Amino acid sequence: MSSVDTPAGAEPDSGAVLLRLHEAARVHGSGTAVPVHALNGVSLEVRVGELVAVMGPSGSGKSTLLHLAGGLDTPTSGDVVVDGVSIAGLSVKARAALRRRSVGYVFQDLNLVPALTAVENVMLPRELDGVSTRVARQEARAALTEVGVEELADRFPEEMSGGQQQRVAIARALVGPRRLVLADEPTGALDSLTGEAIMRVLRARVDAGAAGLLVTHDSQHAAWADRVVLLRDGKMAEEAPFTAGFPR
Amino acid sequence: MSVRQSLLAILAEGEQYGYQLRHEFELRTGRTWPINIGQVYTTLNRLVRDGLVEEAGRKDDGSVNYRLTYAGREEVDQWWRSAVDRATPNRDEVAIKVALAATAPGVDAISVVQRQKAETLRVLQGYTKEKRAMPHPAQGDDLARLLVLDSLIFSAEAEARWLDLVEQRLRAR
What positions does the domain Transcription regulator PadR C-terminal occupy (chain B) (predicted)? Predict the structure, then answer.
């Protein structure tokens, strides 16, 4: 499971662990300063086909968890394994390469490069991967089709609604071999119906063979996940399994 | 009250037998609130007594076909034109239990709140899973169920948020 150069549309190896945190901790400040335990020994796995939601009050460590999961930061103890590669021992440059190769991001807003069209935005990571412009364009169009906005390929971000931009961002996050999407309040700026549509797209992309970590304060959107991880003071308060039973 | 108004509204679409009314009510409200046939006939008898519904004929087996009277039709029109009364809150067992827990000696109110929140989230996930499995976009009876599901989802989400607030207030006291 060291490299995942699966072409788009290939059979996903369901169940493979794409993200593993093992007793991951992040402490800010050392020496004379009082250390701040932003994250305090969190263990978590996200597998292909799984969407895991992270909830918790402000300052509970959600952002730190997302930074570690995406290789933007390294743990002070414990380990974070992204797509089979442990980030703890990696150089800044190697982490950047891992990030680019394995991880896609969707934020609340300002996801897209304003000067590029939708298809160019989605092509960008693939061109950085070194694939030809022609192939990158084909893949980007396919990725846009998968999220239902193929007709917006030549539009600029300012010509799209918020919901359309989020779909393009999801397409870009999972273009090419990328299979881990980290989403930080992706529905935060959207109305209820559009937010639901984005959750539907994210869920469908995960079901089709990706893995997702979703940070949200909205339990309605967290309910689309397979599991909900609740953080409190940098620790995992609970992990609620998705339950099939419910009253009728 | 809602059963009475709902049966009147369905009868406004045409004559129905009691068992048809029950089936139609359940189907049209997403099969969320089952009613027993006894309740349907009790309600129909009251509606007949109040002059809103009348007999339109009988089958050989004795089952009665019902239709609206003019007064019944006016009642339905009035129902559609007015808003449902929200000034009198429904009894909410969760709110009642949490309020009592906060002041009951020897009760760990924060645990009560946390247990309740886990249950509310569990149910919220169940509703969402059902929504995911529905045809999209939903139509007909599926649309009815979807709208009711949305309502249940929003209520559960509101309850979860309220329970968060309760926990913060209890910790701050």
Answer: 91-170
